[in-house]
Write a structure and sequence with these properties.
Chain lengths: 218, 218
DNA sequence: GTCTATAAATAGATAGAC
DNA sequence: GTCTATCTATTTATAGAC
């Protein structure tokens, strides 16, 4: 009976170790960036030995890339869901904004990581992650083309629209520590994520709609 | 006559050194971030001895902060100019967007640096820089309040509006290297800064205007 | 003001025992 | 799978000559 006891426990421990490393790494990378993040600190935060990180993820870069890949996969999944759910192009744009906001809100480590990755020129973006990125932008392009075909939206660069969505969302989510730091000297930094999402939806549709007003339809 | 010759030449060289260091540092910090930037590389890029950096700027952090301070001063100046020029609140919002875009476009190093600074929680933002930041946001708030008083804009959080402006602009400008990298596999990333500014202006006004359409008035 | 040499600390990564 | 000990390279910063 206990023949496989040891392997099983080892596997369980391995999974637990991976999970603990993952959690500590997301925090560290989000707060410090890739170069600022220290493997020693990740190990300490995870409560595991440093060598385990290299055992499970090969290298600091490997660990970082696994996190990026996972999150971009989730975003691509969510956007695919938006397309599958259908609806008017306007509704899909709203859903697109909400979906991306939701994935990011679920992964507070992602916005700061992504901002830095952009600033870094996508140095750590491997082909798999780039593929997800491309797929998402393509799906947004489809939504916009449907809107243009229906005459309710003017033709717009998907990338431009994406900037208008991801820019404010990411900057807002990533700025939480900064907002907290300045909230004592400057009022008006206390905005909810829901307010931001709604503002972005209104703003984005206001920027591409041919209709007079793009009021929200709850 | 040549009594002061040496001091003068020294001063000139000092200014030249500072300028060369400044130029190399902006490039390095923009491309690598604070932690990723290496003092050796800045010295090499500037063509000066590494020790000069410490002589002129005290430390790596001191150099970084001097750059941040300078740029934020320029932004605050530009926005003060927008207020001074007056005009309708809508015109001022457009001018505000254009002014910030212009300062940033003049300093290509700034967008990536700022994105990382946000992601970092403003770790390097000293009180002087924070003051400029605060002043800019206050002036935007005044414009919005005037618009609300005139009835042409609905009340809006200045910070929310700021996110809608700076988010897309910064992300666009900072993503130049990334866009270049992906331009071969994905079309549609080739957008001009003017197109972005116009899109942001339309989008932002579309998000806060009470009027039916916030068409641009050239 | 500028340069050489070097101190002093840190960090990514691995070998090898258990 | 996990831990100890350590190697190697890198990096910020400074002392001191010119």
């Amino acid at each position: 009976m206990p023949v496989r006891a040891t392997p099983v426990r080892q596997t369980r421990n391995a999974d637990a170790s991976r999970a603990k490393i993952w959690g500590a790494a997301t925090t560290e990378f989000a707060a410090q960036g890739f170069d600022g993040a220290k493997v020693d600190r990740i190990a300490a935060g995870a409560g595991v030995n440093k060598a385990m990180i290299y055992y499970h993820f090969k290298s600091k870069a490997g660990l970082f890339n696994a996190i990026l890949h996972d999150t971009f996969g989730a975003i691509a999944d969510a956007v695919r869901g938006v397309r599958a759910a259908g609806g008017t192009p306007e509704a899909q744009v709203r859903a697109y904004v909400a979906a991306i906001a939701h994935v990011a809100d679920d992964r507070p480590f992602f916005p700061p990581i992504w901002l830095r990755e952009v600033a870094q020129g996508g140095r750590h973006l491997d082909p798999a992650v780039a593929g997800h990125f491309r797929e998402v932008l393509t799906m947004l392009g489809e939504i916009l083309r449907e809107g243009a075909a229906a005459g309710t939206m003017r033709p717009a660069h998907p990338f431009l629209v994406q900037l208008g969505i991801v820019g404010p969302l990411t900057l807002f989510m990533a700025s939480r520590p900064l907002r907290k730091k300045f909230s004592k000297v400057h009022q008006g930094l206390d905005v909810s994520i829901d307010a931001v999402v709604e503002h972005v939806q209104t703003m984005v549709l206001g920027g591409i709609s041919t209709q007079k007003a793009a009021r929200k339809s709850r």
